[in-house]
Amino acid sequence: MQANEFEKKVKLSIDELKLHPSGKVWQKVEEAIRERKRKRRIAFFLLFALIGLLLAGYGIYNYSNQKPVQGNETVSDVKPTTTEPNNDNNNSNQTIQTDKNNNNNNANNNNTTINNNTVKQDDKTVTDKLVNNSNQPKQTTPQQTNRRAARKNMDENASIDVNNAVPDKQKKKEVVKNEPVKNETEADTKNEAIAAEKTKVEKPAEEKKAEPDNNGNNLVVNNQTDSTAVAVTNNNKPEEQIKAPEKAAEKKKDLASDKKKWRWGFSFSPGVSSLSENLFSFEKSSYAMADNLNAGPSGAPSSPVSPGYNEPSSSKTGFSFKAGVTLQKDLSKRISFSTGLLYAYHSDRIRIGMMNSSTPLQNFNQTYVSPYYRGGPPKNYTDNYHFIELPMMFNWRISENQKRFLSLNMGPSVSYLFKTNALVYDPSLGGFYYHDKSMINKLHLGFNTGASFHLIDKKGKEWTLGPRFSFDTKKVFKTPYEERNYFIYAGINIGMTLPAKKSK
Amino acid sequence: MDSHKLVKDCLKGKPEAQRELYHHYAETMLGICYRYTKSVRDAEDVLQEGFVKVFLSLKQYRFEGELGAWIRRIMVTTALNFLKRNRKYQSQMYFPEEHLHPVVEEDPGVILQAKELADLVRQLPPGYQTIFNLHAIEGYSHVEIGEMLGITDGTSRSQYARARGLLIKWIKEYSAEHKKENYAGK
Would you tell me which residues 119-178 of chain B have a C-beta closer than 8 angstroms to some C-beta of chain A? Predict the structure, then answer.
């Protein structure tokens, strides 16, 4: 046929056409290839860096989440200990000189030192006394016998106010622990006395009077130094010194407990979103090249699946934002955990054909659909996605300043797509778009990462600002013909966390 | 040139292999892109975009058929997409429904050189130009063309007939003028 002959001649002739391109064409091709590979490498690097940070954060969390050592130990917890002899440095030894004039004079002028660790005036007082005999001859003399008897009485009955004489009104007995006589004097430091004390001395000693024990023995606390006396405990203000460390310890405990509480906050993150072809890739989806590349005109060796006008559209970025309430809790000095409930809006833009609703089309599932979008001059269409998101972020503080600091944030999130107007692509009959929510996955698992700058104001509110990125790990569409697969989001996170309610 | 080895080297990312593949097919592909566009600059843009797609999609080449044919299909697809999204051509890519025009059986009898023929094809309106390229040169059927461009096959046939008629007429006029010049030159 002549018509076919014309086409053959034209094809033969025109196929010989060769034109030499300018040098910059190859330069641009090369740059584009390198750029895409560089972006891929950056995406993989970010992925591995995030995984490394996550593992490091987990390791630091485990390391720092150790039981704190208890700094305050009560008197009852303290076991009486024997110390090395330290007569020269012993400032807390106190001489108790028995009254020779008492009826049962068990004490004599021999050195008898009694170390007291704690003092209480009420019945709960526990006083540790370690009675030491220093340099006592081993011979048993009448004096020693008397001394032993006196000590025995003391062990049974006496409670002595070591630091201050007990007023007559308050004749309260304190229990003296039975401690064996030791040849060695015990060193009792001032700090131990303060730390171990819990009792409050109600009144400072005004007088030093002899306080008879049950056996009528008078025991006098004598602060004056004499030949028989040894250095006196130096507790001039025991009340305040006892109170100050207690208050500091309590305050510390309150602060620590406040930090461990959950703190409410708000978060808003405007940004952009898109649908990428590959997981964790910034590459925008392109149309289905695989089908096109193995296609050709009819009569060609490969199967004739035609490329062209109705291929799946690429996804362009659209506006996106997340907003909601957050809860934050400090896990350690540097690591905190935050979660919350957010509303997330994502969108992307595609190019589709004209809307047709006259005759339903049959899709690849053999279902008739109407309306559909196909043919005609292409137009823009915005897919809207509405999510409820539950983020779980670990925040790692990377600077020391308490008021202003930087942190790295990362963690997974679960989100549920509760509303969308997205169109689904079907390759049948040249390709068209239509609405089908059953082809869209509702439940998504994503990964968030970012960095934040934190600023704590005078009222204790914590303001945060920083970039935030999100990657989705689940495909959006169930159909295999879509190249728009994974959500990606980039934006700026603005947050405010309220201070924890202080402990009463 | 061993296309298998060349493709594998390109997949390994060897720059010299990529450069060799480009230079081997660039001139032919530019000729194809030239037929679809109205300027050399646009043709080079299509060529650049097409080769980027070639290198990024090379892993999908299954060694079925010639490498040149595979690249050619990418170029044609790239050219069509370029026409659709380029505002300059968009308005002219609209194909109104027309009454069926019978294909003219007449043969001009002469065929011009490739460049001259290509220039005549490029003078056709963009719609006619595209359909003529797809059917006469690339070999797509009117049904396939209709699906590609979102038109009926009847519209494709009609537009092609008009394009063919115009082209034959221009070929005759061109060859007649060329003969006069040769005669005058003598």
Answer: 121, 135-141, 144, 147-151, 164, 167-168
Report how far Cα B137 is from the mean position of its chain's Cα atoms. Answer: 7
Predicted pLDDT at A482: 73
Say if residue A212 is preceded by a cis peptide, omega within 30 of 0. Answer: no
Contacts of A247 (CB under 8 A, 6+ apart): none
ipTM beyond cut 0.95: no
**Contact predicate A259/A251, CB 8 Å:** no
Residue A37 and residue A279: Cα distance in Å, rounded? 15
pLDDT in tens, B42-87: 999 999 999 999 998 888 888 878 899 999 999 999 998 898 888 7
Count of beta carbons in the 10 Å neighbourhood of residue A195: 22
- Residue A171's CB: how many other CB atoms inside 10 A? 10
Tokens of residue A317, six digits? 């970025």
Which tokens belong to A422? 């997205």
Q: What angle do CA A436, A442, A444 make, to 5 degrees?
A: 140
How many Å lie between the alpha carbon of A419 and the closest alpha carbon of chain B? 31
Q: Do the Cβ atoms of A19 and B121 come within 8 Å?
A: no
- SS3 state of residue B25: helix
Query: Which pLDDT value is given to residue A140?
Result: 56
CA distance A390 to chain B (A): 37
- Closest-CA distance of chain A to residue B100, Å: 17
